[in-house]
Amino acid sequence: EADSGEYTCDTGDQQTTAAVLVKGLPVLFKHWLKNEEVEEGRTAVLRCELTKPSVPVEWRKGDTVLQPSDKYEMRQEGTRVELFIYDADAQDV
After folding, report:
1. Which residues does 56 contact at the CB level (< 8 Å), separation at least 6?
2. Domain ranges (residues) in the chain
3. What sign does the dihedral 59-61-62-64 (CA atoms) show?
4. DSSP H helical segments within the chain, as ranges?
């Protein structure tokens, strides 16, 4: 989208101008989340992959937005996004 704007070709005697509008593609999932089964006390990891790198994502459990803490760690590298759920217990389901 930074390349959107007016461009001009100028010969010195004449010029012609055209507008370029760059439309952003939607962010889609290349790989979706998969169900995980983990023993109590262990770490559960959820992973997905996006079609664009470094897109801000929001992780939720039900309606609650998750924040980084001792319990949850969010990692993002390029198009890969991961959620780590540490010391899982039955109430994390």
Report:
1. none
2. 29-85
3. negative
4. none
Residue 81, burial from CB neighbour count under 10 angstroms (0-12, 13-18, 19+): buried
pLDDT at 20: 94
Give me the residue label for tokens 């995980």: 36
In the chain the first and final C-alpha atoms are separated, in Å, by: 41
Tell me what pLDDT residue 93 has.
59
Q: What ranges make up the beta strands (E) of 1-93? A: 5-10, 15-20, 29-31, 44-50, 60-61, 64-65, 72-77, 80-85
Identify the CATH assignment for 29-85 out of 2.60.40.10, 1.10.260.40, 2.170.150.70, 3.40.640.10: 2.60.40.10
Residue 30 has pLDDT above 90, yes or no: yes
Quick one: tokens of 40?
A: 């109590």
Residue 1 pLDDT > 80, yes or no? Answer: no
